[in-house]
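Lecture notes, unit on protein representations.

Consider one protein chain, 291 amino acids long.
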Amino acid sequence: MDRNLIQRLFGGLLYGFVVIFCTTPLGSAMLEKISPNLIQQQQLYYGLITFFLFVGAWECVKMMKFDPKSWEKYVVFPLIAVVFWRFSTRFFRHGFYFDFNFSEILALLLVVIAVITLFKFSKELYYDNGKLIFTVIYTALPFGFALGLPKFSAAEGTFSLEVFFLFILIWSSDTFAYFTGKFFGKHKMAPKISPKKTWEGFSGGVILTIILGFFIEKFHPDLRGNWIIVGFLVSVFAPLGDLVESQLKRTFAVKDSGNIIPGHGGILDRLDSFIICVPVVYLYFILEKLI
């Protein structure tokens, strides 16, 4: 068997296991057998998101090639830590209420502005202050909002599966779009940014991901929101997340964001869709509560 294929399979399985271990009660249940009350599921999840954030931010800093003498390079991580700390205190105090909060809406709007800047005004990212602002917004805000998606109770030992199923929908969307595009794809979606993406693949990903969302909604009615709608949002915005990361790498002429996952590249390569989908789903949960 091809060595690269083995490496990709191993890397994919390892990555998948870590995600499942930290986003479902499986992790704490397995650790409970080793040592009772060793660690709670929400702590595993928090550790995973924190790891994703800081490794992803490190990859972003390396990709964007800050001037070694610039002051901006040295304040990236302190700024990210401050922003993430604000989300962290809300996470452990159960402070995500999904109300129409001005600061949250502004933060979500900043993610939109960062994406627009990358595609339309990428020259702004050649300056270190632009790199600083983009890195903080692109990493700290999405991973901060990710802390608000699951519901949990330390007293009852429960942890909900919103993030786990979000990953399932993202993976499924990518897989459905790939195979639909492989067999039926003719019309390129964004040939300069991602030559392999087609509109046929995109359409197949939308339809099949919505169907999967229907079954998640049917068998897990306890989840926050309507997962048919979440499936639709993921099917539309997961490909955008991939295009955002492709455009970022294209802008700074790099092939992969890193090599931490064998055969799959870096954290940002694997979580590009997650980074864009999380703020979208978070905004949907706000609107869904208002309605």
